[in-house]
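Data card: per-record layout.
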Amino acid sequence: MSTFKKIFWGILLLGVLYVAFMMFGSYGAGYRAGAITKIAKKGVIFKTNEGELYTATVINNEDGNTESGGVINNIWYFSVKNDPELLAKLEDALLNGHRVKLHYYQKYWKLFWVGDSKYVVDEIEILNENNK
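The structure for this 132-residue chain is written out next.
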């Protein structure tokens, strides 16, 4: 085999390995807590499940008192792993106004067949069912 062909196949193999790693590898994982505000199925060809989580942060003033501080509102956008049981739990939390703790993993790239976000939720824990 000529040197050109060896170099070509070597570069091609490295490119395929790089793309596979970026697609199937995970950049990070973690948890977010808040209230689900939206769950939707989106897409033209590839239908994906997308959601929004409302998180709020309380700001303390210099004295440590929250009364004169404030609240920073934040919406976190995520995709949902295609799991009917997980979707049912998310919809239940949305409809009943429960606070939830979501476990997610972060992808290197947005994958159009997985979702519109780099963050893919794969677990849900309802924090307090009595406190709505």
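Known properties of this structure: The domain at 27-126 is CATH 2.40.50.140 (OB fold (Dihydrolipoamide Acetyltransferase, E2P)). Residues 3-24 form the longest helix (22 residues).

See the next section for split statistics.
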